[in-house]
Structures are given as C-alpha cells and as structure tokens.
Amino acid sequence: MKMPCLSVSQITSLLKNLLEETFTDVTVEGELSNGGLSSTGHYFFNLKDETAVIKGVMFKNSLSSLSFKPRDGMKLILRGRLSVYEKTGEYRLIANTMTLAGTGDILARLEELKRKLTAEGLFDQERKKPLPFFPTSLVLITSPTGAALQDMIKKLSQRDFRGRIRILPAAVQGDEAPGQLIRALEMANKYKIGEVIILGRGGGSLEDLLAFSDEGVVRAIAASQIPVISAVGHQVDWALSDFAADHRSPTPTAAAEEVSKPWFEVFDQVISAQTDMKEEILRRIEKLRLLFRNFQVENLEENFRRVLQPYLLRLDDAKESLIQAIRDQKTTLNHRLELVTRDLEAHSPLGVLSRGYSVVLNKNLQAISRSQDLTPAEEVTIRFHQGSSTAIIQEINL
Question: Which of 1, 84, 133, 238 has CB atoms 3.0–4.6 Å from 16's, for a disulfide?
C-alpha cells in the first residue's frame, strides 16, 4: 500500500501530537548548560549527559518558584512534558519544576582545582602586580576572528590610544586552546612584547570558557612578569584566570577602556602638574630671595656683627666667670696653706726649741727622753733652738 505524501508541516504536527500526548509527565536528570533568560523572562537552556543533549525551557511563571539561581554546570532534576517547536522541528522539554541533583561535573572539577591552587598561594593578593598608569604598549591574546578582538580595538580607537598594540592569536575554545594560550603568554614574557597583557574572549557557556580555567593556563598567568588582565566572557561569567590575573575586567571592552586613558585627560594632568611645579619653584625662589637680601655687601658687616655679637657677649661672660672662679680658688687655697703652716709650726720640734726647750741626743744622735737611758760619764749632745753643746753625764737622778 502506497503511503501518502506528507508536507513538512503535517509530519511535524504528527510528531508534536505524538510526543505531547505520550510524554505528558517526564522527569529528566542532566547537567545544565547554555542557560540564559530571554527578553520576555523565560529561561532557555540545554540539558546534557555524556552522550546526548536536549533543549529545554522554563517559562517565567514557573521560574519564579525556584529557590536557587540556575547556573551552568549544575546537575539538575527537571519535571515537565515534551513538546515540538514546529518552526524549527526541534523537540524540547517544557520544565515545570527544577531541583538540584548535586553540583555538576564541570563545577565540581573547577572547585577542586580552585581549592588546590588557592592552597598553593597562586591567587594571593600580595602576588598581584599593579597596572602601569599610562601603558604605551599592549598585548592582546585572543582569537583573531572573535568579536572580543574587534571590540577591544574599537574601544582603543575611540579613546585615541596611540601606543603599540601587539596581537598574539590563540584559540579561546576547544582542546587546542589551553596550549595556544600558554604559548602566547610565554612568548609575551620572553620577548617583553608589551607592558600589559589582556587575555580575553567573549561570553559563552561554562564549557566554552573552560580553556581559561585550565590548570596550565592559570599557572602561566600567575608566572607572568607582565601584568595580566583577565577579560573573559560577560559580567556574570567567570573562569579561574580571573583569580590568577593581576586584574579582572568584566568584559574585553572594559579591559581596553581601563588601559587606555584618553590623551586629553593625561594632557590636563600634565598641565596641572606643570602649573603646580612652576608655582612651587617660584615660591622657593622668592623665599631664597628674601633670605639672601639680608646678605648684601652693604649689610654684610652689620649682619655679621649681629650674628657674632651674642657669641662675643657669651665669651666675655665666660671669661669673667673663669677669672672670678680662679680668684676664689686662689683665696681658698691661700687660706688652707696658712692654716697648714700654723699647724706645722705648732707641732715642729724647732718651734718647741724656740720657746726655751732643748733636746739631749746620745752618741747615735737619738733623742733621750728618760734619765735611765743614760750612763755616768756618757758624752751627750744638747741641741738648742740655735746651736748645740757637748756635756759629760756625772750623775743620774731617776
């Protein structure tokens, strides 16, 4: 029996009715990717496992009941129904509920790598290098055909960037991307191509940005001697390169803006600095002029005397004080000498003799103080205050 010829619309309608009538309530588990809100507030996404992908949507009214914000990489359990979008002939899951089934494999791997590199200190704030105030040469590491490169060049042109721009092309997605990004970073550092490196690409799913979370790429960023700006994806996107880089920009366009200060702004700053410097020099010159005005030839002698006079007065005062101190010391010493002299005279044997006393000395010229120390017929010397005489002992009286 010959089958009737169906139009595309007819066969699509048949499939739509078949799916929608058969799969009215299904529960599916998978990993979320390429999720995003439409302009109408509906959430479109892909749900995948190791070998297959299914498109899905959660309408705005169902989305409002979620207790969490869905992110790419999450492993979810969704319940809903299957439908066919006739315009494209694609079938999709219309999700009514969405619950967490655990962290997705990609996020789990990234979180584990992030913890490892954090423990090594690769993300420490102390390691980050400041961006130059006014770089004159840039290195853009990105896809040569991507929108990110055009966006950065456009922004640099709008801001009248007059420095040198070097582009090191590299894949930003896929298996070859990590190796190319690492080689570009190493080349920029080896040959010192620029003052700042912008490592960037446009937005995408978590899988699209995986190259910028590759461990080798992250280590190459941390090892760079040239400051690196990570400008990967859009504001809500992230990669491990953001944590290792010296600076993170939300978009490649924002990165280009941050390194390209408008020339008129810099010119105004230079003029302002020039004015401040000139005023400071003039103030110092005037201060020196006032200082040296007192040292003109006609005033030099007077100024010298004015400076020297206090020292001369201090010298005169010191001299008078010294002379008076010497006089006082001399008077004190003379008085002490007089007292000592009187004391010596009072205790001197000659002083005693001068008062009529005499001293008897034996033949050994030893003074005799007791009569029993003499013997009859002994010859002694009698010493007077002036002169002496010799005598013979005739009688001894005890």
Answer: 84
Task: Judge residue 16's burial from the number of C-beta atoms within 10 Å of its C-beta, 0-12 exposed, 13-18 middle, 19 or more buried.
Answer: middle
9-102: in CATH 2.40.50.140: yes
CA-closest candidate to residue 240, choices 142, 128, 120, 117:
117
What are the residue ranges of helices labelled H in 73-198? 105-120, 147-158, 177-190
Q: CB–CB of 172/109 below 8 Å?
A: no
**Residue range(s) in the chain whose domain bears CATH number 3.40.50.261:** 108-122+135-261
Query: Cβ neighbours of residue 244 under 8 Å, at least 6 residues apart?
Result: 117, 122, 123, 218, 219, 221, 222, 228, 230
How distant, in Å, are the alpha carbons of 342, 353, 367 from that of 356?
19, 5, 17
**Six token digits for residue 82:** 């299957």
* Residue with token string 């000139």: 278
Residues 6+ apart with CB under 8 A from 375: 393, 396
Distance CA 239, CA 106 (A): 12
pLDDT single digits (tens) 122-162: 999 999 999 998 899 999 999 999 999 999 999 999 998 98
Taking only the tens place, the pLDDT of each residue in 39-48 is 999 999 999 9
Q: Which residues of the chain have pLDDT under 50?
A: none
Q: Which of 61, 368, 122 is nearest to 378 (CA)?
A: 368
**Domain 108-122+135-261 superfamily per CATH:** Succinyl-CoA synthetase domains (3.40.50.261)
Q: Which two tokens stand for residue 83?
A: 């439908």
Among residues 140, 158, 159, the alpha carbon closest in space to that of 149 is found at 140
